[in-house]
Automatic annotation (TrEMBL):
Protein name stated in the entry: Serine protease HtrA
Keywords: Hydrolase, Protease
InterPro entries referenced in this protein's UniProt entry, alphabetically: Chloro_Bact_Ser_Proteases, PDZ, PDZ_sf, Peptidase_S1_PA, Peptidase_S1C
Cell membrane is among the record's keywords: no
GO molecular function, one term: peptidase activity
Chain ranges of the PDZ domain: 228-293
SUPFAM superfamilies assigned to the protein according to its UniProt record, in alphabetical order: PDZ domain-like (SSF50156), Trypsin-like serine proteases (SSF50494)
Pfam family, one: PDZ_2
Native organism: Paraburkholderia haematera
Coiled coil: none
Amino acid sequence: METSTSSGNPLQDLSDNLADIVERVGQRVVAVHGRHHLPSTGVIWRHGVVVTAAHTLRRQDGINVTLADGRTVAAVLAGQDTGTDLAVLKLDGLDLDPVESGDARSLKSGHLVLAVARADGLGASADFGVVGAVGGPWRTWRGGQLDAFVRLDGGLRAGFSGAALTDMRGQVMGICTSALARGAGILIPTATVARITDELLAKGHVSRGYLGVGTQTVNLSEAWMKKMTLSSDRGLLIVSLAANGPAEKAGVLIGDVLVELDGEPCKDIDDLHAALSAERIGQPLKIGLIRGGERHECTVILGERPQRNSCR
């Protein structure tokens, strides 16, 4: 990889390096026209494949992308996953070089990063900042699993959802989204992008386990905890049931309080999501409930979550 010649001025060298990264990565960043008015950004991830933030697409047909050379071409939506906020577009007949990807798990809080986006008529756009916080694998509020948690220091500018996030070597660590945390940009790591892209290209959606319930967190009284030997003071109140869904078939009722999954406490939606992995589809799940002040148990055979369904 080429680097700028040192000028003897550290600030000028940093400035030249940033400009080089924007120019290089910008050749593999496109503007995605999948909503009215402002386009979002997409990244050429593989030959003929663009990834972008799913929440920026307001339609499934008639999507176009503008390339670095100014051409606007048609794109076909291969699939999208709201859990990780990823969408995959195919550019038939175009063999464009993909970005050079790196490992987002190498990022640390305080590392300098650069988001590279594209808007019509403006060429490549850049936003310079730092990594605000990092962590291990993270489950989103939509039920998707990110291979690492990377929060950017601040929100994203308009049009920067789907932008490539690079380190100071110009390696792309993943793509940015504003949809997974309120008021902050989140990185969808390269490992997650690769995994979800494979699944979307193969079958158009991402498989997740499905119980068929709508829930809200409730506090449990000390009397209930003592009577039923519960280790947590919280559970999930069943507020809705999908018609003919796995939970309804197993006899779960609206008003039941879900407190255990296969013998482990179920105190919030994260615990429920963790039990609904794709590997569990078609397998029995033993659930513990409180019904009418008494302990109740039943076994549910997990289904595959239908697309665009609000129940878990």
